[in-house]
Fold this sequence. Notes:
The protein has 10 helices and 9 strands. By secondary structure, the protein is α/β, with parallel strands linked by helices. The strands form 2 sheets. The protein has a 6-stranded parallel sheet with strand order 6-5-4-7-8-9, with helices on both faces. Strands 1-2-3 form a 3-stranded parallel sheet. Helix 1 runs parallel beside helix 2 and helix 6 (154-161) crosses helix 7. It is globular.
Amino acid sequence: SLLYYTHLLRLAARRGYAVYVFGGIGRLDAWGESVARRALAKTKGCFARTPADLSHFRRLCPPACQVSLLPDAALWTRPIPPPVPMPQDAFILLSLHGTPSPAFRSALLRFCRTAEANGYRIAAAAMHPTADREGVHALSASLPRLLCLPPLRGGEMVGVLSRCRLLLSPRLHPLIFAAVAGTPAITWEDGGKIHRFAAYAATCAPEGCTPLVLLPRGDDELLWQRALSLLRTPLSPGERAAYLRALRGGRETFAFPSMP
């Protein structure tokens, strides 16, 4: 993705567009930093999703570039009623990224069966209409009671999450939507933007609360125990509001800084 995005930046600059970048950039080797620095040379502004992204942009952008922290716009997503009826009993939502590896698929199946044995319904939603849906179908073959939801838009995902007890997902935006809904979440990616967002979320969480758990690689066996601790200690309404307010950087509404 580095070459793809840097090519777009250089192409836009060559065509005379004022270029602004929003999001993040992870750790790069010396070659990657050289590629990114050349692509960002004519950028007017870079708006970082997390403090770690801000640090990387400041190191790579030219002095004239406007670099500032700007929380993800998805944190202001308004809930929309789900497109299908939702279960009335307690349920846990899975939002996968493609098809899980055989080892992690086994861990997810064990988790789902344990959750069902403890009275929880499992629902699964695809953010990507093709690749993620294949992962959901792969699980549904072994979980007859799995509730397969259609692909959801951002607001619909917030609406679903506001009614569920827990989210499991390796995708960034379902984790952001969970924060908007005040729903605890577990993720199992330990690199890139997921790691940076999890680190940022930890600094925003109210004292004594863990609304987002980053599951280390190799910790699959403890998935249910970690989920159980979140299910037993849900955030209070005040803690939810404080957490989301901190993630939003204290902003009431989302707006890009001025772009001359």
